[in-house]
C-alpha cells in the first residue's frame, strides 16, 4: 500500500515534520507501507505559479500525482492564526477536486499552545470532509509541551491504527453492526441459525453474516423499543 505524508512545516528542523515522521512510522509498524513524504515548503514557488498560470511545475505535478494515487494520506500543518497555514491550504486548492474522494486521511497539526488543538475539528476536518475524503476519528495535535509528555504517543498509535484499518478495508462496510439488546457485543452465529445461500444465517428478523456480527433490521429494533 502507498502512504503519502504531506508536511507543511517551514523551518528546519520542523516539529511539523517530526510529527509527520512519527505518524508514518506508527502506520508502518502496524502494516508495511511504501512511504512518500511531500514537503510543501519545497513546492511553495511552483504552487504560487500554478495559481497564476494554471499549470503545475514538474515537482508539483509529481507531488499531486502521488497524493492522487495514494491508498492513504497523513496531512500535518503548523497552526497559523488559529487555522492551517496558507501554504497547506494552497496545495489542496490546486489538487484536483476529485482526487481525495473516498481516500482515508489522518489529520494532524502542531502549535505553540494547547489552546489551538481545536484546529483539528474546526478547520482541518471540515476541509477534508468537503473534499470527500474519509477522515479518521482521531486527529493528532502536538503542542510544544506535548513532546516527551504522556499522551502523545498513544494518540499517534491510535490515529495510525484507524488509518491502517481504513486503508486495508478499501471500502466502507455495506451494513452497520448493531449491538445486542442488552448492550453486549454481537454473538457469533450458532448451530440453531439457518444458513443462507449468501453465507450468512437467519433467525427471526435478524441476520448474522459469516463474520459473526448480528445485523438487526431497523423495523425490528423500533418494535423492540416500543415493546
From TrEMBL:
Keywords: Flavoprotein, FMN, Oxidoreductase. Coiled coil: none annotated. Residues 175-208 are annotated as: Disordered. Pfam families: FMN_red. The keyword Membrane does not apply. Residues 1-147 form the NADPH-dependent FMN reductase-like domain. It comes from the Bacteria. PANTHER family: FMN REDUCTASE (NADPH). This is NAD(P)H-dependent oxidoreductase. It comes from Streptomyces lannensis.
